[in-house]
Amino acid sequence: QQPVQSPQAVILREGEDAVINCSSSKALYSVHWYRQKHGEAPVFLMILLKGGEQKGHEKISASFNEKKQQSSLYLTASQLSYSGTYFCGTPTYYGNNRLAFGKGNQVVVIP
Amino acid sequence: ETGVTQSPTHLIKTRGQQVTLRCSSQSGHNTVSWYQQALGQGPQFIFQYYREEENGRGNFPPRFSGLQFPNYSSELNVNALELDDSALYLCASSPPGTSIYEQYFGPGTRLTVT
Asked: Does residue A50 carry a pLDDT above 80?
């Protein structure tokens, strides 16, 4: 079952902050975040693991609330390069990386 | 650059035909996953291959099949194409080891079925 992402779209000015969310109706063991620019492949942002471990190499931060079965991505002091569609993916089964992706959050950062 | 390549970039086929899409993973990545991405949607998991064996399948009919080769390349085959098969097809490779690893996506093949 695919996770639900909200809001569907957000427009913000350079330097502003935004939060995008990913929630699931089933237990989450990890959440994977990717960003896709128009006409390009999804690019890995980070993985959030149960227990608090986080793997990523972007300035974008995220949280993972296991009890609420949701994750949030924080776009702080947004840059023009943050524009794109953000997808969260959740493993189809515990311990694998066969991901069910949400429909995405479209983010547009304007000057 | 993820080191994952796909061919062809674009493809137009007629309903009922068969198609083969190709992917070349990063060297050393022995896991490859295939996804279908319809316009305006997130990628949908088709199947995954690990060490040349199918290692999990999504909700896709048997006319979607795949192969993985020892040289880290793989194929997605689709028989009896339908109009709804029109989409961007992405392959993604993962490093060996634990299953909680990031995936490196290729640029995709845009398939149009007329």
From this structure: no
Best of B100, B105, B109, B110 to substitute, by most chain A Cβ atoms within 10 angstroms, is B100
Q: Is B65 an interface residue toward A (CB < 8 Å)?
A: no
List pLDDT tens digits, range A85-106: 999 998 877 667 788 999 999 9
Alpha-carbon span A85 to A87, nearest angstrom: 7
Q: How far apart are CA A107 and CA A18, in angstroms?
A: 9
Q: Does A98 touch chain B (CB under 8 A)?
A: yes
A44–B90: do the CB atoms touch at under 8 Å?
Answer: no
Widest pairwise Cα distance in chain A: 41
